[in-house]
Design brief:
By secondary structure, the protein is of the alpha/beta class. It has one domain: 3-Layer(aba) Sandwich (Glutaredoxin), CATH 3.40.30.10. It is 23% helix and 34% strand. The protein has helices at 34-51, 106-114; strands at residues 8-12, 21-29, 55-63, 70-76, 79-85, 96-97. It has a six-stranded mixed beta sheet with strand order 1-3-2-4-5-6, covered by helices on one side. Strand 2, helix 1 (34-51) and strand 3 (55-63) form a beta-alpha-beta unit.
């Protein structure tokens, strides 16, 4: 057993910023590989958005209960849209459904973030 999952809120700045910020809320089950999923989202999705010139204001929220939740929401002007989910029950519109954020689905997730 590792340490308990903890919230993390931070702004990741793009090295060549286009002056735009994307707000993300990432909800991950606290008992299903939380730290690994956090690391993965940072190295894939957040890194790619930074590479494209976007600052990313992100908030990782551990979800208690052990049901395997893994959702990424983009937030703009108070509107929250699910851009990635590991459950079809949470998916809406163009939500990418999968087990993890990966190179295979990254461009679709980024496109969902940018289309909000």
């Amino acid at each position: 057993m590792g340490g308990s999952a903890s919230k993390e809120q931070k702004v990741s700045k793009a090295s060549n910023s286009n002056g735009k910020t994307i707000n993300l809320l990432i909800e991950i089950c606290s008992s299903w590989g939380y730290d690994g999923k956090v690391k993965n989202v940072k190295s894939t999705l957040i890194n790619e958005l930074n590479t494209q010139g976007y600052d990313v204001d992100y908030n990782f929220e551990p979800k208690s209960g052990g049901k395997g939740e893994f959702y990424v929401f983009a937030i703009k002007d108070g509107s929250k849209r699910c851009v990635f989910a590991n459950s079809k029950n949470v998916a809406q519109g163009n939500t990418v459904v999968g087990s993890n954020v990966s190179k295979k689905n990254l461009s679709d997730i980024v496109q969902n973030c940018l289309s909000l």
